[in-house]
Design a protein that fits this description.
nine-stranded mixed sheet; single chain; Ribosome production factor 2 homolog; nucleus; Rossmann fold; 341 residues
Length: 341
């Protein structure tokens, strides 16, 4: 099933402790007492269609130089909508019961619905956990191992074509595994939420200057790379596009994954179509004529109507008639005087 990632929500706890899956809320419901606090809670309130999603980047007890570079460069790519903590966290274990408590606390504190957690050990070297939150509880998890990492500094390209911060990217997923393998399907959903940014209706082609290309090399391995788009003349209205690899690039080897709970997924996938519509008064629909509405006009009370003042034309006619009568009276009196004399 294709994910409705545009409507994937980041909801707040609406009071008391309640459970999503195996995690339990540890925060209590607080009521804002100031106008500024009420606006902040309203901004974080649940929405059917979320505007933008922030990403939280965290370090484990031990990390490697490769993993530090991965987190730093992903933070650079999402700088306008990401928060990065450099302090080490030894009590975050997302896949273990109770190990996500601190992670959920940081997500609620920073209002982030996506997170990346990096750790390094002998058993799982260069380990990166990607996940999403719902109602500030862990929604799903994908754990990958980073191999063959190449940073931005290792690519030779013209700096003029470097993508700008905040630009919209293309997302390309190459391989049948993204449609048939559950692990790859889940990784695809998480990467879409992570890199595509805010969902928009219309887009100017000149503002699209980057592309993220994900290639399924095997059922458990994905090659990820970041490319800049170069527009060239094609002889038509639509320009010809060329991909120039600008980094970072890496191989992601899937290790563990935890899909979302079905009941929680059903609630998180609600769309604006599922929202009940208000009943329109005096409106009905006809299969032939379409939407028909009734318009009610109140009775006109002519006896109570205020009539307008007399127009200037009537006044002018009366004035001309008066002047004409006055002129005729003067002419008659003058004629009488001439006869008398």
């Amino acid at each position: 099933m294709a994910p409705h990632t545009a409507q994937f929500q980041n909801r707040h706890n609406q009071g008391g402790a309640h459970t999503h899956g195996s995690s339990t809320s540890f925060s209590e419901f607080r009521t804002a007492t100031t106008h500024k606090g009420k606006l902040a809670l309203k901004k974080r309130a649940p929405k059917i269609v979320e505007t933008g999603k922030k990403t939280l980047l965290l370090h484990g007890t031990k990390t490697s130089a490769v993993l530090n570079a991965v987190l730093t460069q992903i933070y650079h790519l999402k700088k306008e909508s990401a928060i990065k903590y450099s302090r080490k966290n030894d009590n975050i274990k997302p896949f273990e019961a109770g190990g996500e408590t601190s992670l959920e606390f940081f997500a609620q504190k920073t209002d982030c619905s996506l997170f990346l957690y990096g750790s390094h050990s002998k058993k799982r070297p260069n380990n990166l956990v990607l996940g999403r939150m719902y109602d500030f509880h862990v929604y799903d998890l994908v754990e990958v191992g980073i191999e063959n990492f190449r940073g931005m500094e290792s690519f030779d390209y013209d700096k003029k074509i470097a993508p700008k911060e905040g630009s919209k990217p293309f997302m390309a997923f190459i391989g049948e595994g993204f449609e048939s393998v559950n692990e790859l399907k889940q990784l695809k959903e998480v990467l879409l939420d992570l890199f595509r940014g805010e969902v928009v209706e219309n887009l100017n082609l000149a503002g699209v200057d980057r592309a993220y290309v994900c290639t399924a090399l095997s059922p458990t391995k994905v090659f990820f790379t970041h490319c800049a788009l170069r527009l060239k003349k094609s002889g038509t209205v639509v320009p010809r596009m060329e991909l120039v690899e600008v980094g970072p690039s890496m191989d992601m080897v899937i290790r563990r994954h935890r899909p979302p709970n079905e009941s929680v997924m059903k609630e998180a996938m609600k769309t604006s179509r599922d929202k009940p519509k208000k009943k329109e008064k005096n409106v009905k629909k006809d299969p032939l004529q379409g939407k028909i509405g009734n318009v009610y006009i109140p009775d006109q009370k002519i006896g109570e109507m205020v009539l307008p003042n007399k127009s200037k034309g009537v006044k002018r006619e009366r004035r001309e008639a008066k002047q004409q009568k006055h002129g005729s009276d003067e002419h008659a009196s003058k004629k009488q005087k001439d006869e008398f004399s």
